[in-house]
Amino acid sequence: QVQLVESGGDLVQPGGSLRLSCAASGFTFSRYPMSWYRQAPGKERELVAVIGSAGGSTNYADSVKGRFTISRDNAKNTVYLQMDSLQSEDTAAYFCNVRLLRRYWGPGTQVTVSS
């Protein structure tokens, strides 16, 4: 069955960096675009970044453009989110996502940006 497992979330100070990973299994990873979403307390889940199946195309939410980088390693069935210059507004649970016949979600990993 399809499984997505995120990792790498942590407590970090403003201006710091984190790298999130999402390990995927149960489908042909290299054939599908992958996405990162986030959800802050009391807010709706929002799209953060998307990467094409081969990794050549990426798109970002305006709020993270220039600070976050999405990448993937199709040999490892893993998608990454490098987050730099973190701000308190980036505090959220981060989820990776793939859309097959339906959307699949991982359990999420918590990122907290605070001094």
Description of the structure:
The protein contains no helices and eleven strands. It is mainly β and 115 residues long.
For this entry, give a set of tags.
single chain, 115 residues, mainly beta
Which secondary structure elements does this structure contain, and how are they paired or packed?
Layout lengths: L2 E5 L3 E2 L5 E8 L8 E6 L6 E6 L6 E3 L7 E6 L4 E6 L8 E8 L3 E3 L3 E5 L2
Parallel strand pairs: 2-11
Antiparallel strand pairs: 1-3, 3-8, 4-5, 4-9, 5-6, 7-8, 9-10, 9-11
Give a quick precis of the structure:
The protein is mainly β.
Helix run count: 0
What's the overall geometry? globular
| Poorly predicted residue ranges | none
* Helix fraction by DSSP (H/I, runs of at least 4): under 10%
Total beta-strand segments:
11
**Share of β-strand residues:** over 45%
Mean pLDDT: 97
In whole angstroms, how far apart are the ends? 40 Å
Going by helix content, strand content and strand pairing, the class is mainly beta
The major pleated sheet works out as: 7 strands, mixed
Order of helices and strands: EEEEEEEEEEE
Rg, Cα atoms, Å: 13 Å
